[in-house]
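Annotated sample (chain length 120).
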Amino acid sequence: MKTEYIILKEAPLTNNCPECYTTDGLNLSFKQQKIYTKLLIKTKGQILEQMYCKKCETDIFPGRYTDDIERVYNYHKKTITPHPASVQFRGIFYVLVGVLFLIAGIVIVYLFYPEFLESI
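Output written by the structure step:
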């Protein structure tokens, strides 16, 4: 299983960092999780949000947002368009389903029509 994050939006902010008070280090990103397995690809509907300061190398959590940061955050959140939550099946899934139907068909013929198999 492989997990990948689709970057919906990354925006550098010019607001003051609540930790180190610099004006050029904040970065806001919105991501969406995509999971790859052998049978399917699943895109989750949940959006992961992260605000990070490059100067002091810390994550800024919503409890530390100032009013200015909160307004900029709300603006950027309105501008993103997430991918719809979905499940895409891979080719091997369809092969397995086909094999299962074939086996089920053979079992049904064997149980309900044994004379058909004897004639072959």
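Annotation: Helices lie at 67-79, 91-112, 114-119.
Annotation: The chain is about 35% helix and 35% strand.
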